[in-house]
Amino acid sequence: MSGSNSGRSAATVSDAPAEGAPEAGSSSDPDVFLGLSTEECVALLREMIVERRFEEKAAEVYQVGKIGGFCHLYIGQEAVSVGTISPLRDDDYVITAYRDHSQAIARGISPNAVMAELYGRVDGCSKGFGGSMHMFDKSLNFMGGHGIVGSHLPIAIGAGYAIRYRGGDQVCLCFFGDSVVNIGAFHESMNMAARWKLPVIFVLENNRYGMGTDYRRVAAVKELKDRGRGYDGLTSLDVDGMDVLAVRRAMDEAIGRAREEKTPSFIEARCFRYMGHSMADPMHGTYRTREEVEKWRSDDPILAFTRQLMDAGRLTEEEYKEIDREAKEIAEESAAFADRSPFPDAEALYRYVYSDGYPDDMRRRDAWRKELR
Ligand SMILES: Cc1ncc(C[n+]2csc(CCOP(=O)(O)OP(=O)(O)O)c2C)c(N)n1
Ligand SMILES: [Mg+2]
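That is the input. Now the predicted structure with magnesium ion docked in place:
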């Protein structure tokens, strides 16, 4: 399907207007559950609830000073992380920006390791060196956690290029926010992905704001999915990012294109962050109204999917309560684990700064420096 920009189909794409929250998918559609078993659907719900409870706990411990530095919460966007990461294979790649806790958990980094990272402890997934914005786990091909807006898109291109160079059929999933579409590296990356036919799936999480800026104030192209339409070979579409099954369907199709045709996709997932930009910011501030936040909250992706499963007879109230209880336990345990984990020792400051080959180079550089004295 090279050269096609026709990824928009009734099944994958939300027709919801940019204003306001999108409609939830209808349970009367026989294919609404995408052929997933009840067990698989409940696993998606469980994953979303674990992410939510984990981040609520992170907010709580942040307020009592356990977490230093930035802490950007993902609450409200769980349908995107779960809908996109759940169909990946273990050998696929995931790369993201700084709002990365939930994506790390969805990829399989343990909540304990994510919380310990937030606490800056040695058992954190980045050994306590990264903190909130820099979750990494090479063994899971989770390539971060990047703080500079748009900086990681070229890295996703590198992963896509490496996959093709080695003749593999993996994909690289790359998340980013709505501010990124105005960054030069975005267009360079789209162009290279399309021109070189790289198996990269770009997922734009349009939560409508970049810090305190409404995306419509700064983007000259109002429909963000249209940003991808200028590139032949890149399938561009939008999807209801509050509906885990809609996201999953769009992702399944994008994975198919990437593995079989080696073509990239650009998915705009329309969603909303309920919390402030970071924990240091107010819930709605002056850039959005309390009513807008409340409206999106009433379309909560977890509540909507819970209702959908219950209506279809796939989940009982008791089962939901049990999942929620377990998720709270996981969150509590992660904080207790992080508390028990020690801080890195001072000596560790000198580790992981350069590659293993560095000491030799260092000696050479030192000798060279001495000559200069
Ligand atoms: C190149 C660059 N410019 C500015 C910043 C400061 N900054 C940090 S987060 C952010 C907003 C990003 O918004 P968005 O991409 O929509 O992601 P979201 O926070 O909504 O997840 C900005 C401007 C930065 N980190 N990098
Ligand atoms: Mg945003």
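The longest strand covers residues 200-206.
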